[in-house]
């Protein structure tokens, strides 16, 4: 049972957070025209990329550290509650089809478990213990990277995840949208994207959510680039799990090699549909098994494998 004193303490905490601040200039927003509200909201959203830009050095440092851990076999684990947790799960779920990662390589943990993706789980975010249980459940090790995500920077679940992970020697990143947050302080890499008060007071699925999505896009995408999951700006590790992706696979091979359609079909056939391997057979003039061997020796980096194919 939460006491009146506890609620007073929590309210005092919220009063200090930029993401919870009240905007008197927007107090009449419900009386404005829809177009005016839309313009105001769009203007607010336009400020988010600049807030992210101010933290690019911290973001880049976190990405380099994450890539180094993952290159040694570590995993990337997101942990958050509510909107923050959902954004982490979303980013994790998009890595297998985009970068052909194993589903266990990038994970999203949300306070309250999978059901919290679609409905609130009462009290789940208030427990550091739940975070520890979730990380213990996946067998967290010191090779892994844990990203705690919380707009307020005070969510116990996110802080608990980072504290437990850091205690194990794992790499830790704390992503929040308030300055001087407890989450950033708990993590080795603190990233604070201060976007200011929301259009709707305290609705951090808006600017704060957009900021978190932008940073998570960078974190996963740039990490995968560093791990050799791309060739230039082509997604050469894309997993062709549907017709659209199969068409995209052929287009990627064409863009990378300039080969004809019959040549592309042959290359994909002898490499079991693996785009990266198909490109290597065409550009390196090697067969399928040799392409696989060269890529394995290069830890999946296509440019290195191409260099080895041209200079055996």
UniProtKB/TrEMBL annotation:
Q: Which residues form the SIS domain?
A: 66-229
Q: Which reaction does it catalyse?
A: N-acetyl-D-muramate 6-phosphate + H2O = N-acetyl-D-glucosamine 6-phosphate + (R)-lactate
Q: What InterPro entries does the database record attribute to this sequence?
A: Etherase_MurQ (IPR005488), Glucokinase_regulatory_CS (IPR005486), MURQ/GCKR (IPR040190), SIS_dom (IPR001347), SIS_dom_sf (IPR046348)
Pathway the protein takes part in: Amino-sugar metabolism; N-acetylmuramate degradation
Listed GO MF terms: lyase activity
Give the domain of life.
Answer: Bacteria
Indicate whether Lyase appears among the record's keywords: yes
| E.C. designation(s) | 4.2.1.126
Active-site residue list: 94, 125
Which major enzyme category is it?
A: lyase
Q: Which keywords fit this entry according to its UniProt record? A: Carbohydrate metabolism, Lyase
Asked if Lyase is a keyword of the record, the answer is yes
Which Pfam families does the protein's record reference? GKRP_SIS_N
Report the NCBIfam families cross-referenced here: N-acetylmuramic acid 6-phosphate etherase, PRK05441.1, PRK12570.1
* Assembly, per entry: Homodimer.
Recite the other comments: A lyase-type mechanism (elimination/hydration) is suggested for the cleavage of the lactyl ether bond of MurNAc 6-phosphate, with the formation of an alpha,beta-unsaturated aldehyde intermediate with (E)-stereochemistry, followed by the syn addition of water to give product.
Q: Which family does it belong to?
A: Belongs to the GCKR-like family. MurNAc-6-P etherase subfamily.
The protein's role, per its UniProt record: Specifically catalyzes the cleavage of the D-lactyl ether substituent of MurNAc 6-phosphate, producing GlcNAc 6-phosphate and D-lactate.
- What name appears for this protein in its UniProt entry? N-acetylmuramic acid 6-phosphate etherase
Q: What is the lineage of its organism?
A: Bacteria, Bacillati, Actinomycetota, Actinomycetes, Kitasatosporales
